[in-house]
Amino acid sequence: MDLEKPPQRPAPQTPEGCLVVAIRLPVRIVVLVLVVPVRMVWDALVVAGRFLTDTVLRPVGRALLWVGRALFVWPFTGLWRYGVVPVGTALGLLGKVLVVIPLVWLYRSVLTPLGHALVWVYARVITPVAGGVWWLLAALGTGVYTGLAWLARYLLVLPAGWVYAWILTPVGHAIAACAKGLAWLVGTVATGIGVALYWLARMLLVLPALALWRWVLVPVGRVLAVVAREVGDALGHAWRVAGRISLAIGRALATLFRLVFVEPVRWVYRTVLTPVGHAVRDAVLRPAAAVARSVGRATREALASARESVRQARADFRRMLFGEPARPERIDRREPTGQETRTLGRSTTALTKD
């Protein structure tokens, strides 16, 4: 098995005409001149938009989101949790007590026996009576239907069949033959007129339009397609070149800004502000923090001694009013000593021996 891919041959390029070569260079120059300012403005807007989004829009959006939660979400959540839900629960319980339980009692105690009684009346009384009435009506209907069917057969169906067979059928055949001949005549005339109009339209409209399409519109369309393709390629090429130019200008401006502003500020911070800050920290902040810690320690000790004095005074006052509290008797829970201790070498212990 051959694991190496065979080298790919480049696709054969079709030769370009002189018209394409003559159009390409001027179009690319003009498009590049027009596109470079647009690309630079676009890149500047992109950078400004990112800076504005990171520094203004995103913090403002977070603040507005927090304010919206504080003004709308949290109050409605509290209202729902501590207002609507308890009220709804109370209303549900009240509805159950006042509506559901009485309706269930009414259904079980009143409607169910009444329904059973109605079912018994329907099954024992109404059903037999309705069956007899239905049988009587069915017998009467069968007799009436038989009589009407006999009268309709001999008064309507047989005379109508004779009229259709001996009068309407011959007349219809004659009318159909006349209509068929008339349709053939009209079709022949219409076919001749249609053929004449077809050739007239072909000579006056189709052939001139075909010649116009073949000898005028197709060459003009090909030229316009070439121009449009070259303009599109020029726009893409000019956009990429403008991006490189804009990137180079942006890097140059960033380098200039760094040399003019950032580096002096960094030098001032490192050589001036940092030593001054260290000196202020060592000479002022640390002694002040040590003094504050010592003052806080002394204050805590004074407060602790004051609390202990107050607690002792309260205990003395309670003993003066109510006397000493009764001390509970101590219960000796230690192991027995001497001969009453448990032994590990014998089977008896101090608790089980005689």
Model description:
This is Integral membrane protein. With 354 residues, this protein is mainly α. The protein has one domain (22-307). It contains one helix and no strands. The protein has one helix spanning 18-322. The protein is flat. Mean pLDDT is 80; it is low at 1-7 and 350-354.
Summarize the SSE layout with pairings:
Elements: H1 18-322
- Helix percent band: over 70%
Per DSSP E runs of 2 or more residues, the count of β-strands stands at 0
Mean pLDDT: 80
Would you tell me the structural class of the helices and strands?
A: mainly alpha
Given the structure, what is the number of helices? 1
Portion in strands = under 5%
User: How can the largest sheet be summarized?
Assistant: none
Can you tag this structure with a few keywords?
86% helix; 1 helix; mainly alpha; transmembrane; disordered N terminus; 354 residues; disordered C terminus
Care to give the gist of this entry?
With 354 residues, this protein is an all-alpha fold.
